[in-house]
From TrEMBL:
Pfam families documented for this protein: CM_2
SMART domains in alphabetical order: CM_2 (SM00830)
Keywords recorded for this protein, A-Z: Isomerase, Lyase, Pyruvate
Domain called Chorismate mutase: residue spans: 6-96
BP-aspect Gene Ontology terms: chorismate metabolic process; salicylic acid biosynthetic process
Organism (species): Methyloceanibacter caenitepidi
EC number, UniProt record: 5.4.99.5
Top-level taxon: Bacteria
Name assigned to this protein: chorismate mutase
GO molecular function, one term: chorismate mutase activity
Gene3D superfamilies found in the cross-reference section: Chorismate mutase
Amino acid sequence: MATRAAQNCESMDDVRVEIDRIDEQMVDLICERFAYVDRAWQLKKSPADATVPWRIQQVIDKVRARAQKNNLPPELVEALWRQMIGWFIQYEEENLRKESKE
């Protein structure tokens, strides 16, 4: 399906079609990112390894900079990434705990 620039949308239906298209792409990208998180916990040794503060800050700094470069509120991007990172850390910790019990 061809994409339409936001300023070329002539109705709410046009806007919704584009938002739905973007949402599909975002889910696909999160799925791809999740595959790497899933692999990451397998390479770690213990639940304590799931949280790496310097890496979290590095990721946040990068996405904030990219948001600013693209005129997107960096606070929005940071909030989304912190939520996602928090979920992934919890996922890694749970899997590492299960693995250590086996």
